[in-house]
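Researcher: Here's a chain I'd like modeled. Treat it as a single chain, no partners, no ligands.
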Amino acid sequence: MKVVLRKDVPTLGKAGEIKEVADGYARNFLIPRSLAALATKTEMENVAAHNAAAARTLARTDAENRALATQIEGTPLTIQARTGEQGRLYGSITSGDIAEALGKALSRPIDKREIELDEPLRQLGVHKAKVHVARGITATLTVTVEAEK
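Model: Modeled as a single isolated chain. C-alpha cells:
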C-alpha cells in the first residue's frame, strides 16, 4: 500500500515522502496515529504544493542571507580604543565588541558567536574577521582599530 508520510517516522522516512508499506502496518499503525495518509491524488498534490512552498521559502531565505553577506562585506567598521605607547591597546577588541559595533552599523542584532577572529585584536590597524551569516555563507569584514582622541 502506498502512503504519504505526514510526520517523520524514524524507521521509514521523512514527512512528505511517498512510501510503499505493508497493508497492516499502514492500517494498524501509521494511519491511526496520523503519521501517514493513503497516497491519493489529492494527497499527492498537497505534498507537491507543500514542497514547492518550502523550496520558495528556502530560496528567499538564501537570497536574504547572501544580501546580508554582501552588505557586511561592504561595511567598513571602525572601532576606537584606548592605547598605550607603541600602538598597543590597553585591553583588546573581542568578537563581542565587533558584533555590537556591526549591529549598530547594520541596525540589526549580530550574535558574537557568528564572528570568527584568530585572536582578539590588540594592535592598531586594519584587521580581517569572518562573519558566518548562514550555513555555507561567510562574509569577510574589515575592522579598523584606531586610537581614541
